[in-house]
Amino acid sequence: MSKRIIISGGGTGGHIYPAIAIANALKEEDPSIEILFVGAEGKMEMEKVPKAGYKIIGLPIVGIKREISLDNVAFPVKLTRSLLKARKVLREFRPDVAVGVGGFASGPLLMAASVLGIPILIQEQNSYAGITNKLLARRASTICVAYPGMEAFFPKRKIKLLGNPVRSDILSSSGKRTKALSHFGLDEHRKTLFVMGGSLGARSINQSIQEGLKKLNDAGYQVLWQTGKGYINTAHKAVEKVGSSRVKAFDFIYEMDLAYAVADVVVSRAGALSVSELCLAAKPAILVPFPAASEDHQTKNAMSLIRQNAALLVTDEHASRDLVETAIRLLEDPQKQAELKTNIATLARPDAASEIAAEVRRLID
């Protein structure tokens, strides 16, 4: 009889893509394994997971807002409904292991799994543990982490330091430059700045790039710009105003391997997934941490690279003043680019997905 794995979590690409990477690694090792995802209704996992070829079921769970809000009144009801639905899904699917990657949906699913005696594995992407994973830690058999020092949040005996799982195509991005240039319609003779603000976009990065588009264009560089859905119309107007065919703006880029392949320099938030991908792609990066991330964990993620001279830092507060200038200086400095590439490559963990998959299988055996 084939083994069954249920994977829960989501909300952002930083949760979803590691989950998909784990699923792909499990399937690669044993194609007969059955995998079911559980996400939160209305969140991006409900779109991204089926695109990756997996079935997903949504729970009505929502997060608690930190500020006083009427939305919080509905939380207990939605939590109860989510727990009941999670229990029903678990009884019907009968998984051998439940995997949680953080985000709203992993809470009710893993709580229900622990009550039913199903072994639990947690994967924590960040250097500062998320609230859902911290609450579930005592119920987990194994906790896979990407940064050292996580015993501050989790029982030391349960921790496995394995890195963050990323999509396998990122590992092979270096040989795809010609294909990437053609795909995005870029010029092979010009250097490319790849700007990404994560799956949901990043206001300060987007506004800084918008204000500096003419300067980048006049300097002779081309820009590949992932804006997020909320900013794409503004970006298109900005590109039209500059009147340049050297700026390509997209709300979302699925072909991230090609985006990394064509990039000479990358501007990015410092979410755990982005940091892990930059290490694997070995790209010179300028990190702009999102200051409102819980416990300022993006700054902590970024500093893990800055301390090793593996990336440059621009604060969110000073992005409008410094970001484009810093990007141009780095694009003009091949020696600094080479230095950053060498240092960031040493931090990569290319086998994270397969090693986490091995831990999942160990819980079955």
How is this structure best summarized?
The protein has 365 residues and is of the alpha/beta class.
Strands, helices and their partners?
Elements: E1 4-8, H1 13-29, E2 34-40, H2 45-51, E3 55-59, H3 75-93, E4 97-100, H4 106-115, E5 120-124, H5 131-136, E6 142-145, E7 159-161, H6 168-171, H7 177-184, E8 192-196, H8 203-218, E9 222-226, H9 232-242, E10 247-250, H10 256-262, E11 265-268, H11 272-281, E12 285-287, H12 297-306, E13 312-313, H13 319-331, H14 334-345, H15 352-364
Parallel strand pairs: 1-2, 1-4, 2-3, 4-5, 5-6, 6-7, 8-9, 8-11, 9-10, 11-12, 12-13
Helix pairs in contact: 1-15, 3-4, 7-10, 8-9, 8-13
Radius of gyration, CA atoms, in whole angstroms: 21 Å
Sum up the overall morphology in one term.
globular
- The N- and C-terminal alpha carbons lie at a distance of 14 Å
Tell me what portion of residues adopts beta-strand conformation: 15-25%
- H/E element string? EHEHEHEHEHEEHHEHEHEHEHEHEHHH
Structural class: alpha/beta
CATH architecture designation of the largest domain: 3-Layer(aba) Sandwich
Overview of the molecule:
With 365 residues, this protein is of the alpha/beta class. The chain folds into two domains: 4-164 and 350-364, Glycogen Phosphorylase B (Rossmann fold, 3-Layer(aba) Sandwich), CATH 3.40.50; 169-345, 3-Layer(aba) Sandwich (Rossmann fold), CATH 3.40.50. The chain is 45% helix and 15% strand. It has 15 helices and 13 strands. The chain has a seven-stranded parallel sheet with strand order 3-2-1-4-5-6-7, sandwiched between helices. Strands 10-9-8-11-12-13 form a six-stranded parallel sheet, with helices on both faces. Helix 3 (75-93) packs across helix 4 (106-115).
